[in-house]
Design brief:
By secondary structure, the chain is of the alpha/beta class. Among the domains are: 47 residues, no CATH class; 112 residues, no CATH class. It is 43% helix and 14% strand. The chain contains eleven helices and nine strands. A five-stranded mixed β-sheet has the order 6-3-7-8-9, covered by helices on one side. Helix 10 crosses helix 11. The longest helix has 17 residues.
Length: 258
């Protein structure tokens, strides 16, 4: 009997029942208030008078009226660029520990987006909520003892001055909680490989040794990896090597049952 799985499943079911359905509008307002309060003493918060916005009856409307729209170039040129000149408390308290590199869908040069400790906490909490969402599905207890293969960018981050740089999925994976490391695949050593083809090659090599219950990553990346595993091991489908694979969650936090 999967004892650990039964305990985890019970905790997830109980937590899901207690939390219940939440009002999305009220939840968004709580987030807005928290962000305004935390950033009210920053340069950005003072410029756009976040304290005044907090006093408004309709905070979302007041925020939209007072704070202009920024694309990446404008917010980087006017605000985030100050962080590289040693300034603090620019758009968020303190200095960011990381900068996420992303070419995105616009522009020719890589974008450098500050990632703070609070953002890392928010990403972790989003991951926990994904796990809690499993209470909506009737998975067997032993599912919660299977590995979860997370396919993202390299976790081998680059040191730059007083911060680390890398793609956001690599930053996130390098900050997974200690209690999750026993479930996490492909593991720290393979996740640090920067070359995509080499990393997939190692995953293909280790695939028979893993009992994968869930996959997480960008759909196109996951598809390419699965095709390589199937091809290398001469399989009809991925379930021949991972028979307990039941869940896929994309980078955009959507759950699918397989």
């Amino acid at each position: 009997m999967p004892i650990i799985g039964s305990v985890i499943k019970g905790l997830i079911d109980v937590t899901g029942t207690i939390s219940g359905d939440q009002n999305p509008i009220e939840e968004q307002e709580k987030v807005l208030i928290s962000l305004l309060e935390n950033a009210s003493e920053t340069q950005f918060g003072k410029t756009y008078d976040f304290k005044n916005i907090l006093e408004a009856k309709n905070k979302a409307k007041r925020f939209a009226q007072k704070v202009p729209y920024f694309d990446y170039n404008s917010i980087n040129d006017n605000w985030w660029n100050k962080l590289h000149n040693g300034e603090e408390n620019v758009t968020w308290p303190g200095n960011p520990d990381y900068f996420a590199l992303s070419s995105g869908t616009t522009g020719k040069t890589s974008k450098r987006i500050p990632v703070t400790a609070d953002m890392i906490k928010a990403i972790r909490w989003a991951g926990i909520k994904q796990v809690l969402a499993l209470s909506n599905f009737d998975f067997p207890s032993d599912f919660f003892e299977k590995g979860i293969l997370m396919l993202g960018s390299s976790t081998d981050l680059v040191k730059q001055e007083d911060h680390l740089e890398g793609e956001i999925s690599g930053i996130s994976a390098s900050n997974i909680p200690s209690w999750f490391r026993g479930y996490y695949k492909p593991g720290e050593e393979i996740a640090k490989i920067d070359d995509w083809d080499e990393r997939v090659e190692k995953i293909v090599e280790e695939a028979p040794n893993w009992d994968i219950g869930g996959l997480s990553g960008i759909p196109s990346w996951i598809e390419l990896m699965l095709k390589e595993v199937i091809k290398a091991h001469n399989l009809k489908n991925i379930h021949e090597i991972w028979p307990n694979l039941e869940v896929y969650t994309s980078r955009w936090c959507c759950f699918w049952t397989l």
